[in-house]
Here is the input.
Amino acid sequence: MAYRFVLEVPEPLAFEVNTAVYSTPDVQVHHVRNSHGLGFDDPFVNLTVAAHSFEVIERIYQWMVDYGQPYPDLRLVMHDGRRVSLPKANVSLIVAAIRRDQPWIDHTMPMIGSHEPKPWLSPAARRSEEPVVPVLVLDDPESLAERFRTAPRVPVHNLAPAEDFYRDVLDLQVVARAHRRDDGSLRAISGHYDPKMARLNVEEADVVFLENGPLQINLERSRRGQLLPYGVDFEEIHTTATREQMASIKGRILMGGYNLLESTDDVLRFADPFNVVWVITPAVALSSGEPAALEG
Here is the structure.
């Protein structure tokens, strides 16, 4: 395991926190023992956690949100004995603290996946700061219905990770989100929308519309108990990009550990985590010298 850190938790919550940590696939808890350095009668337990990525930190914060206020007193224990309070920090700060506490990891271990901190708010800040909201480009029912009919649909169980993936790898931006009415029609979601809080409040969008220039796809939320045909009935989407864009996308695929199927001067093929096989071929740059957007 690449990263190793000590999480200090109140003894009555040790089992719950341990369960939350183990819900992350690339994590192990090596030791559970009474905390040290605070006296023999302190009511805390130390969990020694080893992980390949920082997804576990995001999962712990998700558990804290589920637990509710007042947030439990969870702490990161540094090598020199200092404690960093999770409720008073956020994901980015905790990730940065772990990386500073064991800097040799970034220089001696291969970076499998993206370990950059994500700009998610800490539980304490969620209520005081407004989430970033994309510009609502599609808002009338006819435009939503037409786009839903014509653009490729990607079924997913959880919209937020899919939005993050397509933004980070293919620069696809959210242009609208919509709820599905009882009659099947779509109603645009206006105003502030935080994907993660919407999931907690059971108010998730049913469809998310993404685009990058002419390239358009729709993310369609499926019931979490519904079996999706991953690895069997995949969607194949063809698009074009400049050679510079193709090189950049290939780098993101390799850094993210995604399934690169083919890479030549004439084609880039890869399978994404949502059962889509992308086939990208070279496009010509615009006459102005600006790179062309991805084309569907």
